[in-house]
């Protein structure tokens, strides 16, 4: 059954997928208790992720095999370029992160890893490879965001990072990505699996990096 293809990939990525979705960063985000220093580090790194992510979306638009898919990627690229970038800038301001601070912060290892896997997927010109990375980057974020308990934290820096990944438009986009990979992935299972599994590992590494020495205080 072709519609189980993404489910098979997700199962194959366990236990890493669940470790990422249930990460300490996620549980502290739910309760609004991530220290500012940790959140600032995460968002500075993630803002860089966004840059390569937009070029991956461009590759999706170029490699898609239908007009409908191209239109959806185009609309989504518009949302990401507008609202999401605004969130980052407001969050940096609220956390006291200046443009100079950002410029002085080097890319963390998982940031470099993500930039290269996104570039690599784009360069394959394979729609399935691009979709595999997108399914992880979007599906894994929807998975944890949609499980957030209510009420959301008061601080918008935390609350909006949840609602950006748990809203109707995002849910529909995640469902679209899944349907697309279920449709085109089974013809190229090895490349799909390779990109999917590597992307899940990078997601976990990305969360782990924010708690590594130098970035975060120890647990109280
Ligand atoms: C490491 C990392 N992985 C996935 C996402 C999720 N994500 C990246 S771009 C984008 C599109 C618009 O929200 C989404 C959902 C992230 N932010 N950071």
UniProtKB/TrEMBL annotation:
Regions that span the bilayer: none
Entry keyword Manganese: no
Gene Ontology cellular component annotations, sorted alphabetically: cytosol
Active site, per annotation: 203 (proton donor)
Family: Belongs to the TenA family.
EC number of this enzyme: 3.5.99.2
Chemical reaction(s) catalysed: 4-amino-5-aminomethyl-2-methylpyrimidine + H2O = 4-amino-5-hydroxymethyl-2-methylpyrimidine + NH4(+); thiamine + H2O = 5-(2-hydroxyethyl)-4-methylthiazole + 4-amino-5-hydroxymethyl-2-methylpyrimidine + H(+)
Name of the protein in its database record: Aminopyrimidine aminohydrolase
Gene Ontology biological-process entries: thiamine biosynthetic process; thiamine diphosphate biosynthetic process
